[in-house]
Amino acid sequence: MKKGYLLLTLGAILYGTVIVGGQFFVQLGLSLFQLVLFSMVIQFLCILPIVLLKPAYQIEKRFISFFLIYGLIGAGAELAQFGGLFFRVPVAVVAFLCYTQPLWTILFGRLILGEPITGRKVAATALALAGVAVLLAPAWSGNSNVSGVGLAIALAGGVLFSLWVIWGRKSGISKLHFVTTTFGWSIFTTLWLMLAWPLISLWIPDRSIVSLSLALPPLYWFYLVVFTLIAGLIPNFCFFRGLRSMEAGAAGIILLLEPLVASLLAWMLFDQEIGLGTAVGGFLILLSNYFVGNMLDTPSQE
Prior knowledge:
The protein is mainly α. It has one domain. Helix content is about 75%, strand content about 0%. The protein is built from 14 helices and no strands. The protein has helices at about 5-15, 15-30, 30-55, 65-85, 90-100, 100-115, 120-135, 150-175, 180-205, 205-210, 220-240, 250-255, 255-270, 275-295. The longest helix has 26 residues, at about 150-175. It is globular and about 50 Å long.
């Protein structure tokens, strides 16, 4: 089993803590922008000493435009995954639309990176999406008054996440160190989020969304640091390192381990029931990852 596959799998498992951690901070009263922006800044500050001590990790001028685009994709993806919720789209619907990411990743992988669309990829994607659908089925709502704008935002989240994977793969192809990629992505995502904040504040003046007060208890800051390390910095290192030797399409399928891990953590931490649907959905997602782990067409750039 390739090292890249193992690293991507570990990253996907750790990304599963994002949703559960987000729920925890919502219960503490943090706003959307406090959670997204503060965790991004903490990630940047954690990497900064490494980059200052080793200039080889610094961003070369020729990659500035690359990271400008990557930061814009990252900021859009971070906001879009929550945006549909504020238009009263059910949580499960938002999640499923965001997790259409592998479909777009395989398509963009072909168009942008020239990656082949194989039968094994198609089969793995179908299994993974079926698993996500089954996993989220209990939470689907019969509400017929779902906002079209909200659905479009959630779907845009899936497209943006796929572009995030594609740009990560491009960084691997360019032989950028995973520290450099994480550093550049965190800087420019932070900048784009800061630029977007005034506009979103005018559009959605809800304090639970746009509040950016720094007046948080010290314990909350400690929680944010721990959350950023576990759900952000470490999995990003694993993800960007793994993308040096794995195709973007395969990586996109592996990332679907995230909702499975989130469901298990929600059961352990929030007493949310795990039923037959969760077990079946989880099995299909794991089966899809088995297909990915046995792909013969993954490139090797170790």
